[in-house]
């Protein structure tokens, strides 16, 4: 996968060997994509994206797997336009089976599955959208996700490429600005933590995690709330909601 010629997969297809090596990938070449954003069948699109991503094992395998579930979920509307609703989840399911079959280590499996899951996530080039995306995806793999999305777009209709690459560039800049400004990007960036809640009298239990997640969601939408004083004020309301939900 990290060779300089990833399109050599076509040799396996042309010789008929691909059906024995990766049958899940072989059927992608039989799946057309009649859609304004696409110009290749699923198999050729995948190979284009593999060729366009950074030469890293995790990223190359992510691109190979990112649309591998499309043949399973394909539908065509009354206008003849193809759709692939739910393909990230189906691709994750297939990718996990393949990676376990090929004896991938668990750490690699988990990272690739997270990237496949979020590869089609819509991220707008503004602060709130980027904060929410980082929250959902994970700060530690967010830049890799942008590399995946860039490769994906380079394998689609070139008519839309410049605009979409420009949006990704702005998203990347916003991410770096958020880091530089110290804005919250993960749970550990909260001004309040589990030890603080225990010191406030909360028992060590799963409810602490629920409360921290609720605080995190509030701060994602309102970064100015990420001060110790404001979060302590908010904890009481969240605790009441958690208790009501439990009962």
TrEMBL record:
Q: What is this protein called?
A: tRNA nucleotidyltransferase
Q: Which CDD domains match?
A: HDc
> Domain CCA-adding enzyme C-terminal: where?
95-234
- InterPro entries assigned: CCA-adding_enz_C, HD/PDEase_dom, tRNA_CCA-adding_enzyme
* Gene3D superfamilies (alphabetical): 1.10.246.80, cca-adding enzyme, domain 2
Instruction: Give the Pfam families listed for this entry.
Output: tRNA_NucTran2_2 (PF13735)
GO terms for biological process?
Answer: tRNA processing
Keywords (alphabetical) are:
Magnesium, Metal-binding, Nucleotide-binding, Nucleotidyltransferase, RNA-binding, Transferase, tRNA processing
GO-annotated molecular function: metal ion binding; nucleotide binding; nucleotidyltransferase activity; RNA binding
């Amino acid at each position: 996968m990290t060779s300089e010629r990833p399109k050599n997969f076509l040799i396996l297809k042309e010789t008929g060997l691909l059906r024995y090596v990766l049958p899940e990938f072989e059927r992608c070449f039989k799946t057309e994509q009649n859609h304004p954003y696409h110009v290749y069948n699923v198999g050729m699109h995948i190979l284009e994206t593999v060729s366009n991503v950074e030469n890293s094992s995790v990223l190359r395998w992510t691109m190979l797997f990112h649309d591998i579930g499309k043949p399973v979920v394909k539908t065509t509307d009354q206008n003849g336009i193809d759709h692939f609703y739910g393909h990230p989840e189906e691709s994750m399911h297939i990718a996990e089976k393949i990676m376990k079959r090929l004896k991938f280590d668990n750490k690699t499996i988990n990272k690739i599955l997270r990237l496949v899951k979020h590869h089609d996530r819509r991220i707008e080039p503004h602060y709130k959208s980027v904060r929410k995306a980082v929250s959902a995806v994970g700060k530690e793999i967010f830049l890799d996700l942008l590399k995946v999305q860039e490769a994906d777009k380079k394998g689609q209709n070139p008519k839309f490429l410049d605009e979409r690459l420009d949006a990704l560039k702005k998203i990347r800049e916003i991410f770096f600005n958020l880091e530089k400004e110290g804005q919250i990007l993960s749970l550990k960036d909260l001004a309040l933590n589990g030890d603080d809640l225990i010191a406030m009298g909360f028992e060590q239990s799963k409810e602490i995690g629920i409360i921290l997640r609720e605080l995190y969601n509030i701060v994602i939408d309102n970064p100015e709330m990420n001060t110790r004083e404001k979060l302590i004020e908010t904890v009481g309301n969240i605790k009441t909601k958690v208790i009501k939900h439990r009962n």
